[in-house]
Amino acid sequence: MKKFLPVLFLIFIIKATAQTGTSPTPAGKPKIVIGIVVDQMRWDYLYRYADKYTPTGFKRLQTGYNCENTHIPYVPTYTAPGHTCIYTGSVPSIHGIIGNDWYDREAKQVVTNVGDTSYHTVGANGPEGMVSPNRMLATTITDELRVATNFRSKVIGISAKDRGAILPAGHAANAAYFFDGNSGNFVTSSYYMDSLPAWANAFNAKKLPAAYVKDNWKTVLELNKYAESTDDDEDYEKPFGKEKKPVFPHMVYDEVVSHPGALIATPWGNTLVFDFAKATLLGEKMGMSGNTDFLAMSCSSTDYIGHTFGPNAVETEDCYIRFDRDLSDFLSWLDKQYGAGNYTVFLSADHGASHSSGFNQKHHLLSGVYKNDTLIKYCNDYLKSKYNQDNLVERVTNMQLYLDHSKLASANLDATVVKKALIEFLLTQKNVAKAFDLAALGAEPLQKDYKEMFINGYYPKRSGDVQVVYEPGYLEGYTKGTTHGTVYSYDTHIPLLWYGWGIKKGYDYSPTYMTDIAATLAALLHIQEPSGCVGRPIEGVLKK
């Protein structure tokens, strides 16, 4: 009888494999890890719209492990630093991605976080693929997975935004795919490959953007069901595209046909990413090799819709109801592809968002708008009156002022003295809460947590000279819609959900941080944490 036991066991394994269509689960590791970053998702969206969520989307993930008190530990709270922090476990002072863009003093121009003219677009014509992860100065958890398996594990990043795909995928990724709004294709950079794989070309050939919106954008529920939102027509919301008023139904079809990139400002931009994720997993046979693979995906439509309409709009609520349904469908698809319990998912966000300035003012909440071009004019006018020198402030970006050090030197002006004068002037301005010399942060009398966040966000070779901090509720340039980027909790408090293989069930209300995600993944997969990682594993998440 003993001779037949191995045969019977083999038959059992073959039958189990046939049921899921995949290889057996590798011992001690998941078949695949799926990272889902929801762009501009405030933590409270998990609960504000919960009555309209399905049991199998966000709520399913919440049956895993829910880190309720997760915050971003640096400023500015923008997309590129957020994605980088999640996957490096590090902060801008180490990984160098201090914003979506910053002022390059030597080049005398603003540079983007992934811009790289050494490479070209693959999959369409145009400059979209002139990008790489080379400005990111630390490894990612996805890099470490590649190294740990001697590059047998596949790692792919996908997003509507280039930065949402490239930075999470890391330096050693197999690929990063992002959406080209002109062609309507998912494209990549020659950093990764010289031509798109056949499966990606086949996906692009379907021309899905127009098909998604053939019936235009109507609310998925009856309009009177959106009790968690303001009236549909508010003057502090931006109209969609060429529309005159920000109200349903939104006639998006013609806009998307003429410019496919408009899709990303509708909920179907997220649908497109989920569908491309399925095509990627199938086309690349991810999770099938016996090594743990990693798909890093980012959903950006939530950000575009949030910027346009704000957190309290019917459009935002409708977007999250639809996202929940897309998520439910995707998780069900993963069950069929890999078998429930054989994959690990985490879901988080790159940043939150403020309420619209108009919403705050309407409800007697403190708020306002500031403009960088006005700020730089005021500062230069003041410095001109004091030192008789024009344009000593070169640039304002990421709420940081960059002084022209060559002009300071030629005028024999001490930079420290000029910064002190500039700070004194800024502190006289209405609604400026703080202003300080970034090079002297250690001596600045800031609240402890805030001080640490500014230190974590400061990288001397890329950051500015003087940091400006506005009072809570003040937005950079957005008289309609909203934005983010500040040190305040509405921008820093993000969701963090864990689900699947190796994950315990439970809730955690103690402080956790965006930097802890990569450290937790490293512990889960038993691999080295990324090179600049400062986070710690969240112990409650992991089964022992």
Description:
This protein has 544 residues and is of the alpha/beta class. The chain folds into two domains: 6-360 and 494-541, Alkaline Phosphatase, subunit A (3-Layer(aba) Sandwich); 368-472, Gyrase A, domain 2 (2-Layer Sandwich). It is 34% helix and 17% strand. The strands form five sheets. It has a ten-stranded mixed sheet with strand order 6-9-8-7-10-1-11-19-2-20, sandwiched between helices. Strands 13-14-16-15 form a four-stranded antiparallel sheet, covered by helices on one side. A hairpin with a 4-residue loop joins β4 (101-104) and β5. α4 packs parallel to α7 (162-169), α11 (268-283) packs parallel to α13 (314-338) and α12 packs antiparallel against α13 (314-338). The longest helix is centred in the middle third of the chain and has 25 residues, at 314-338.
Percent of residues in helices comes to 25-40%
- So what's the oligomer here? single chain
Average of the residue pLDDT scores: 94
CATH topology of the largest domain: Alkaline Phosphatase, subunit A
Tally of separate helices? 20
Strand order of the largest sheet: 6-9-8-7-10-1-11-19-2-20
**Overall body shape:** globular
The CATH level-2 architecture of the largest domain is identified as 3-Layer(aba) Sandwich
For the record, give the distance between the C-alpha atoms at the N and C termini, rounded to a whole number: 36 Å
Q: Which strand-content bin applies to the residues?
A: 15-25%
Indicate how many domains the architecture comprises. Answer: 2
CATH homologous superfamily of the largest domain, by name? Alkaline Phosphatase, subunit A
| Rg | 24 Å
**Low-pLDDT sequence parts:** 1-23
- Structural class given helices, strands, pairing? alpha/beta
Number of strands: 21
The CATH class of the largest domain is Alpha Beta
* Largest pleated sheet: 10 strands, mixed
